[in-house]
Amino acid sequence: MSRPDIVLYTANTMNGWKPLIFLHEAEIDYELVNVDFSKKEQHAPDYVKMNPNGKIPTIWDRSEERAIFESGAILWHLAEKYGRFLSDDPVERSETLQWLFFQVGHIGPIMGQAMFFQRIAKPNGNEVPYAIDRYVTESRRLLEVLDTRLKGRDWLVGSEMSIADIATYPWARSYFWATVDIEGLPNLQAWFDRLDAMPKVQEALQLPEPRPSAFGKGDIAAAAKANAARFASDVKKD
Ligand SMILES: N[C@@H](CCC(=O)N[C@@H](CS)C(=O)NCC(=O)O)C(=O)O
C-alpha cells in the first residue's frame, strides 16, 4: 500500500489547525504527527531541520522529498498541489493571497500576543496591562476589518471557501481565548456560523487532541491552568 504524500507535524493550536482544515475539507489522505510542546519536540534537532523556526505546523511532502514550514506557505503549497481553495482567476487569486497574508501578518501575531499576555505571561507572574490592552484593542480592530470585508459576502474572497478563510477561521474563532469581544460584528458571526456548520472543518478542529477551551467551551479554568503551565518556561520574570 502506498504511503500518503503529506506528513503533517502539528498541534492543537490556531496555526496548527489550518492545514488540518484544508486536508479534511479536501478529503486528502495524510499522516499526522502530534508535536508535543510539553516535551519541546518543536525544538528537537531533526524537527528544526524541517522548520528552522522551531514552531508548528510543518509538512513533509514525500513526493518532492522536502519540508514546507509557515502555515500560510503550507496552505499555498497544498492549494497548488491539490488544485483546491485557490482560484485560477488572476484577480481572485491575488485577493486570496492578500487576505491570507493579512491573516499571517496581522491577525495571527496580534491575537497571539493578546493570548500570550493574558493566558501565559499573567498567570506565570508577569502581568503587563498595557500590552494586554494594546493587543486586545488591536485584535478587535482587526476583527472589525474582517466584519466589514464580509458584509454581503459568504467568504473572504469569491464565491467559495478559500485558503484565506481556512487560515483566518481558527484564529478569529478563538476570540474567546484572546478575550476579544465580537459584539456588533454580525457579518463575522454569520461567517463563523457558516464554518461552524461544516462537519469536516469541525472534525479537523478536534485534532490532534480536542481543545474546546479555545472556543469558550468545557472547563475553562482547568484548561487555562494547564495552558499556563505548558508555556511557563517561555515567561521572563525580572
Ligand atoms: N508564523 C508561524 C507561526 C507558528 C507558531 O507560532 N506556532 C506556535 C503554535 S500556534 C508554536 O509552534 N508554538 C510553540 C513554540 O513557540 O515553541 C506560522 O504561521 O506557521
From TrEMBL:
Gene3D superfamilies, sorted: 1.20.1050.10, Glutaredoxin
InterPro entries attached to this UniProt entry: Glutathione-S-Trfase_C-like, Glutathione-S-Trfase_C_sf, Glutathione_S-Trfase, Glutathione_S-Trfase_N, GST_C, Thioredoxin-like_sf
Domain GST N-terminal: 3-86
Single annotated GO MF: transferase activity
Keywords of this entry: Transferase
Pfam families: GST_C, GST_N
Highest taxon in the source lineage: Bacteria
SUPFAM superfamilies, per the entry: GST C-terminal domain-like, Thioredoxin-like
Domain GST C-terminal: residue ranges: 89-214
Signal peptide positions on this chain: none
Family: Belongs to the GST superfamily.
Protein name as annotated: Glutathione S-transferase
Originating species: Ruegeria marisrubri
